[in-house]
Design brief:
This protein has 302 residues and is an alpha/beta fold. The protein has a single domain, classed as 3-Layer(aba) Sandwich (Rossmann fold). It contains seven helices and eleven strands. The longest helix is centred in the last third of the chain and has 20 residues. The protein is globular, with a radius of gyration of 20 Å.
């Protein structure tokens, strides 16, 4: 395959799986809906930490042959930022997410955090998938508690977290409801609350709104940005929707249909953003024109 080092373009204006070390166990009592201490995402000099990915490669056995999903991927993610991974179906977006999280090992490559090598999976993370996969026999509150117990959060701290994060997604009044009593959008909100309640360093989101109608998805995108603003989490978000990626992101990694990292686009439009913002439309238009020109030319000719 051709070299896949991304150029950098500056443009203007579930089932939630967690891993890593146990969460912070400090608490202020069962009845206090206080936030757990967030992980520090800054280096010693006070600057936001940078996670650098170098020469990532992943392939899978295909009979006697090997199928390469991607290779030679180089990119950086600033902690506390919102990064989207975008590309056509089958280009390796979800595989890349799984490699970053450590769910599957890379064949080659390294990850550095402020220059220090870290292993995939060392980040404490939560995962939000297309479907929230809530446990139907548990209430909404107990679904969140299930994740907290799995991460070893002390019992006296659990109720406070449950209330806080359900309140954050606007569902504190549904704490005693069951999943089948909620709409699809509400269930996905519960999935997000459950993922955040364990206080991850990184929130991985794999096309979380793709199964929702556009009206609900539009509302949840705006809500997600408010949640991101309040929590300061690093979010890595997979999508094939260019409008969604531009609206949400600080930076967009674009994979082509050969698994090459065609570009890393910086979205410099100011926040808060609104649907239909001229700067966002211009950014999306330029980004997609360049992407389709790349596909038409072919990776070996560009």
């Amino acid at each position: 395959m051709a070299d896949t080092t991304a150029s950098t373009t500056q443009m203007s204006q579930s089932d939630d799986t967690t891993t890593g070390p146990p969460v912070d166990e400090s608490h202020s009592g069962d009845g206090e809906p206080t936030a757990p201490a967030s992980s520090d995402s800054h280096s010693a000099d006070g600057q936001a930490s940078v996670i650098a990915f170098s020469n990532l490669k992943k392939s899978f056995a295909n009979g006697e042959e090997s199928f390469t999903v991607f290779e030679g991927l180089d990119f950086e993610i600033t902690e506390g930022s919102f990064t989207s991974i975008m590309g056509p179906s089958g280009c390796g977006k979800s595989t890349l997410l799984n490699v970053i999280s450590g769910l599957i090992p890379p064949d080659e490559g390294e990850i550095r955090r402020d220059g220090e090598i870290v292993e995939p999976g060392e980040f404490f993370y939560s995962y939000v998938f297309q479907e929230p996969r809530l446990l139907d026999w548990l209430t909404i509150g107990e679904n969140v508690r299930f994740a907290l117990r799995a991460q070893g959060v002390p019992p006296e701290d659990q109720s406070g977290r449950i209330y806080r994060y359900l309140e954050l997604v606007g569902l504190e009044d549904k704490i005693d409801s069951y999943p089948q009593q909620l709409s699809g959008g509400m269930r996905q909100r519960v999935g997000i609350a459950r993922a955040l309640a364990v206080d991850p360093e990184i929130l991985f989101m794999d096309e979380p709104f793709s199964s929702l109608d556009e009206f609900t998805a539009k509302e949840l995108r705006a809500d997600l940005l408010e949640i991101w603003k309040e929590t300061g989490k690093t979010i890595i978000f997979v999508t094939h929707n260019s409008s969604e990626a531009v609206f949400l992101s600080d930076s967009i990694l674009i994979l082509d249909d050969n698994g090459q990292l065609f570009d890393q686009v910086s979205v410099d439009a100011p926040r808060p953003r609104t649907i239909g913002d001229e700067a966002l439309i211009e950014t999306e238009s330029t980004m997609m024109e360049q992407f389709f020109a790349h596909l038409d030319t072919g990776p070996d000719e560009s």
